[in-house]
Design goal:
The complex is a heterotrimer of chains A (338), B (295) and C (433).
Chain A (H helix, E strand, L loop, with lengths): L15 H33 L14 H4 L1 H4 L4 H7 L2 H32 L6 H13 L2 H12 L4 H8 L16 H8 L14 H27 L3 H9 L4 H12 L1 H16 L3 H6 L11 H10 L5 H25 L7
Chain B lengths: L1 H7 L5 H39 L3 H5 L4 H5 L7 H8 L2 H32 L5 H10 L9 H10 L6 H5 L6 H13 L3 H8 L4 H9 L4 H17 L2 H6 L8 H11 L4 H21 L1 H14 L1
Helix pairs in contact in B: 2-16, 5-16, 6-10, 6-13, 6-15, 10-13, 11-12, 13-17, 15-16
Chain C lengths: L2 H30 L11 E6 L5 H17 L3 E5 L6 H11 L5 E5 L3 H6 L7 H7 L8 H5 L2 E2 L2 E2 L2 E7 L1 E5 H6 L9 H15 L4 E2 L4 H10 L17 H15 L3 E2 L1 H4 L4 H6 L5 E4 L3 H8 L5 E4 L10 E10 L6 H11 L2 H8 L12 H7 L4 H5 L4 E3 L6 H16 L5 H15 L13
Parallel strand pairs in C: 1-2, 1-3, 8-9, 12-13
Antiparallel strand pairs in C: 3-12, 4-5, 6-12, 7-10, 7-11
The chains are: A mainly alpha (338), B mainly alpha (295), C alpha/beta (433).
């Protein structure tokens, strides 16, 4: 992201001398907050993850600095996490979530943007309508969808009217993996936990997420589409290219940087989903909607294994995102030349 | 757009006519799909209004098609019940906290954004990169240390916990840096000839011209604070300090299947932000877009 | 700290405060005279917190607190109930040191708090005020004792019982509540045949299942408390029976039927038989005042009758600045007067056997609940019990969804208990009365 922007510009500024000091004065207010609550917090997170310290521990957090020996457990937390079923379940849940939501919202966002980019009436209306869920409070939307998915809610009503049986257990109460259910229908039992697929409950939250964020992705794509110079299409049209060819050979390649951005934003978003899970399922049923981020909360602030353990999960989450970021940069390296 | 005019300029051959028909078909398809999706986006909100006006008894019954769109008997009981809860207090807290976020971020983002846009100082590039890269980090990664730090500062269960850690953020700094880079440098150069310092330049030239950027920034700050949930959830346990999302989430825990009440509270919370959104619609979308294009 | 030292501390504190207040109070008295006589007292404020599930509960508890203030003009109470997510909030507030002076502690979570040293030992205060451990049901107060110290006094308790819709049962020719597991299944079958719907409502919740677990002769701990023994043939029988009701379509769950909890299902007419405690009745009064319900003991299992006894204490924060005043509040709220008034709401039963008679006069139909005290098992599983409970609930949800079978569920519950529960410090669950 925006890496190119940070390129140093050759300075021809005669008041460079003043700026050397004034620059720091200007960034000081922002940096003060960043140093304590962001950079400091990240380092602190690493440090706490090496300790056994919890909400119920007596004495303030300073004591793990003053008397580190009392709470020090080294890498034990990491070892416990990597050998615990809960973590790997959360890992799978998070992975399915991202694998489902990111492509879906990217695809729908692109399709809607292409449609809305035509010369049609009410373009502003559609843009406003599609973006509205994105600005609404996540808690409110979760509450509304809780009702939509409930046993007597509209989604089950529509299914019933269409002649489908109401699923049992209902949406958010159903921890069964969707692929496992399909395979079960085909007579295949006991699939590996890695192939079970997201649970019906997780899928319900994923659909909600796509519903909320597709508008955002559409708006970003729309702006990207408007940045494509029209004469490229004109030239293609003269060459007799069909619409589909233009879409495939011009639109998609020209939108690559935008797509890279949309995917990055999407990944970050799916890795921090929390509000919807807290409100709709509290990580259940059977922990099948517990993502890694949610697990940090459960272990740290509920009746869990404490801050040390939770921080260690947070550090692992941080490393996963870092790895994904570098992977993504590598895959789309040329797009950053813009 | 350009494609269409390009086509119109040429004489209609058979292929072009085919293309014209195809164009009409696509146009219709676009309308149909866009309208369907718009309905899909609106239905949950419409249903929540309908349900909020139902009696508890009707909400418990199986739905009918008519029931989705219109209650058998309209009642405002649910709204009455919502106002028995402390919703005004939550509203006030959310508004107060939002105001502090907006002011704080306006200050930190304009100063830092300006420095990053115009000044050369040691460590600038690496610092900007570091700030920018924090945009990728989920809030959950730093929640434990944030809690512990605020606890040591004796700020848990105070407005301080709801505001202090959020007075600066990477996106705001980035947004303002972009904005300042789009302002021409002539004015500053003129001021420099007059011997003005950076501080005077900032106060007398930059700030008065920063309004459009500040509006976009404020809308983002507002949206972020108005919807913040994780941090209030963890830092606040006093009901008197609940913000709107927190109050709502707890209200749902204790009134789980009283759907009319839940929907009433959803409607009450959504209406102000919807009005706000319709007024500032352009800014919402453009802020999102500028971050999207330039990111 | 011995009783003597503690009373010495009390004296010293009071005299210091009296000195500090002497001058300003004197001035105020002289100028304003008798009008503000009451507020001129040196008042101590005690902050009290707990959860509250209904307006009626809040109002009644506030009334009890007002009675207390009337009787103790030197203590002012600030009541700050937490509307939901209480255990999480309590822990956060304890860590922040901003927790109330006196608060509710659920028996399941009590060991964690006691072991962490976050609760104030009450024994010295008790002997000073002449309160004896024997005034309470031994099984209840034992839930709040740790290594020989008492960290809370039970405010009330309730076991689980069977509550049923009398009309629906008599419609299918059943006149008495199911007395055994076989009766229960037969009744559920009869209701299913008559209505085409499952009419028993159970939850995938260890806080219900464990009663069946014990009733089949299964245990959580070995007799000496040194081992976890959840997974056993008896347990398999119990879980098979409990889950079998659902699997075979005889019972439903709140989520399937569209209710919040089984009591809600009974009130909404979505079920006819549920297993709940006293907390159900004020709720029914509110949401289904016309419902004719019957109350009975839980059906007996192969190993006889068992129920779970849920209890909550008033405890004080170890770091409270006003320990004496906090004790005065606890002592009143768990004393005969405060407890009788509080339990008169009908949410739960008095934790003092001495008050049982009086309570029963008010709620004669709930005698089965009182009777089940003889064989009730405490709702407590040692340090880490609450965390185990959360894990076990997840395993039961997986079972109810059909994603794992009964033996796997028990195996995984066993593993969860081994990981979560700190064994060396585990008191064996004791009978209540």
């Amino acid at each position: 992201m925006a890496v190119a922007l940070a390129r140093p510009r050759p300075s021809r500024n005669p008041i460079v001398a003043e700026d050397r000091r004034a620059g720091w004065v200007f960034i000081l207010p922002a940096m003060a907050i960043f140093i304590v609550f962001v950079f400091g917090a990240i380092l602190f997170s690493f440090y706490v993850s090496l300790h056994n310290y919890s909400l119920l521990s007596r004495g303030g957090a300073w004591q793990i600095f003053v008397h580190p020996g009392r709470t020090w457990v080294g890498l034990d937390n990491y070892r416990d996490i990597l050998s615990s079923d809960d973590f790997w379940l959360a890992f799978r849940n998070t992975a399915w979530y991202a694998l489902g939501v990111v492509p879906a919202q990217t695809f729908f966002g692109l399709v809607l943007a292409v449609l809305a980019n035509r010369k049609i009436r009410g373009r502003t209306f559609f843009r406003t309508a599609f973006y509205f869920p994105a600005i609404s409070s996540s808690v409110v939307i979760s509450i509304i969808f809780l009702w939509m998915y409930s046993a007597r809610g509209p989604i089950n009503y529509v299914l019933r009217e269409l002649g489908f049986p109401t699923p049992r257990p209902v949406w958010l109460a159903n921890p069964n993996g969707i692929f496992a259910m399909l395979l079960h229908e085909l007579g295949i039992e006991h699939v590996s936990v890695w192939l079970e697929g997201p649970s019906v409950a997780l899928l319900s939250i994923m659909m909600l997420n796509v519903w909320t964020t597709t508008g955002t992705m559409m708006v970003i794509y729309l702006a990207g589409l408007q940045n494509i110079p029209g004469d490229v299409y004109e030239a293609a049209a003269i060459d007799g290219a069909t619409r589909f060819q233009m879409f495939r050979d011009i639109t998609i390649p020209m939108l690559r940087p935008v797509t890279a951005f949309v995917v990055t934003v999407g990944l970050i978003g799916t890795f921090q989903v929390f509000d919807q899970i807290w409100v709709m399922s509290e990580g259940g049923p059977a922990k099948k909607t517990t993502t890694i981020a949610y697990l940090v909360y459960v272990e740290g602030f509920r009746q869990g294994r404490g801050f040390g353990y939770a921080s260690a999960i947070a550090v692992i989450l941080f490393l996963i995102i870092l790895a994904l970021y570098f992977m993504q940069r590598r895959l789309t390296a040329q797009d950053y030349q813009m | 757009m350009a494609v269409a005019t390009g086509e119109l300029a040429r004489p209609r051959t058979g292929a072009a006519a085919r293309k014209g028909r195809m164009d009409t078909a696509l146009q219709i398809l676009a309308y149909v799909v866009l309208t369907l999706v718009a309905l899909l986006m609106f239905f949950p909100f419409i249903f929540s209004v309908t349900t909020s006006l139902k009696t508890q008894a009707e909400a418990n019954r199986l739905l009918s098609l008519r029931g989705l769109f219109w209650p058998e008997q309209i009642t405002f009981d649910a709204y009455r019940k919502v106002f028995e809860a402390d919703i005004e207090r939550w509203f006030f807290n959310s508004a107060f906290v939002a105001a502090i976020w907006i002011i704080g971020r306006a200050f930190t983002a304009t100063t830092a954004g300006y420095a990053f846009a115009r000044m050369q100082f040691p460590g600038k590039n690496i610092l900007f990169l570091m700030v920018l890269s924090t945009m990728m980090i989920p809030g959950m990664v730093t929640i434990v240390p944030k809690f512990l730090i605020l606890n040591e500062l004796k700020l848990i269960n105070t407005y301080g916990a709801l505001t202090l850690p959020f007075l600066a953020d990477a996106f705001g700094i980035f947004l303002m840096k972009q904005f300042f880079e789009s302002i021409p440098t002539e004015l500053e150069e003129a001021a420099r000839v007059d011997g003005a310092s950076r501080y005077r330049m900032f106060g007398e030239i930059i700030l008065p011209n920063a309004m459009p950027g500040l509006i976009a920034l404020s809308i983002f700050s507002f949206q972020a604070s108005w919807n913040a949930f994780l941090e209030p959830l963890i830092f606040i346990s006093k009901p008197a300090l609940y913000t709107l999302p927190l109050g709502l989430a707890y209200f749902r825990q204790s009134n789980y299947t009283e759907w009319p009440t839940m929907m009433a509270i959803a409607v009450i919370t959504t209406v102000p932000i919807a009005i706000f959104y319709l007024i500032f619609q352009r800014w919402f979308v453009e802020g999102q877009v500028s971050s999207g294009i330039k990111g | 700290m011995s009783a003597k030292e503690s009373s010495g501390l009390l004296n010293r504190k009071v005299s210091k405060r009296a000195r500090a207040l002497a001058i300003p109070t004197g001035l105020v008295m002289a100028s304003v005279g008798p009008f503000i006589k009451r507020t001129a007292f040196a008042q101590t404020t005690v902050r009290v917190t707990g959860w509250t599930s209904s307006g009626a509960e809040y109002d009644l508890f506030s009334e009890v607190l007002q009675d207390f203030e009337a009787a103790h003009p030197d203590i002012k109470i600030s009541y700050e109930p937490v509307p939901s997510d209480y255990p999480t909030k309590l822990q956060t507030d304890i860590a922040a040191g901003t927790v109330a002076d006196v608060f509710y502690v659920d028996s399941m979570f009590a060991p964690d708090l006691m072991a962490a040293g976050q609760l104030l030992p009450l024994d010295d205060f008790m002997s000073q005020s002449g309160v004896s451990v024997d005034d309470f049901y031994p099984g209840l107060i034992a839930s709040f004792q740790w290594q020989g110290q008492t960290y809370g006094l039970p405010k009330d308790w309730s076991p689980l019982g069977t509550v049923y819709n009398q009309q629906s049962l008599s419609d299918v020719g059943i006149t008495a509540a199911p007395a055994t597991w076989d009766d229960l299944r037969a009744a559920g079958q009869a209701l299913l045949d008559a209505t085409g719907e499952p009419r028993i409502m159970i939850a995938a919740d260890p806080a219900r299942y464990l009663a069946f677990h014990y009733a089949a002769g299964a245990e959580v701990f070995s007799a000496d408390g040194s081992q976890i023994v959840i997974n056993s043939p008896q347990a398999e029988q119990a879980l098979e029976f409990y889950y079998g009701l659902y699997r075979d379509g005889i019972a439903t769950t709140p989520a399937d039927a569209g209710a919040q909890w089984p009591g809600d299902g009974l009130a909404k007419g979505l079920s006819d038989i549920v297993f709940e405690g006293n907390w159900l009745f004020p709720f029914l009064q509110d949401s289904a005042p016309d419902l004719q319900y019957g109350v009975a003991e839980l059906p007996a299992g192969p190993a006889g009758k068992v129920t779970l006894a849920f209890t909550v204490s008033f405890s004080a924060f170890a770091g409270t600045k006003v320990p004496e005043a906090a004790w005065t509040v606890i002592n009143y709220l768990t004393g005969p007067e405060g407890m009788l008034k509080w339990t008169s709401l009908g949410l739960a039963m008095p934790a003092r056997p001495g008050l049982a008679e009086q309570w029963l006069q008010q709620y004669p139909e709930r005698e089965p609940y009182l009777n089940s005290g003889e064989y009730a098992r405490g709702w407590q599983l040692g340090v880490g019990g609450q965390a185990f409970y959360n894990d076990a609930a997840a395993e039961m949800q997986a079972l109810f969804a059909g994603s794992q079978d009964v033996p796997t569920t028990l195996q995984r519950m066993q593993e969860a208990a081994e990981q979560r529960i700190r064994l060396q410090a585990t008191p064996v669950a004791t009978p209540t009365a």
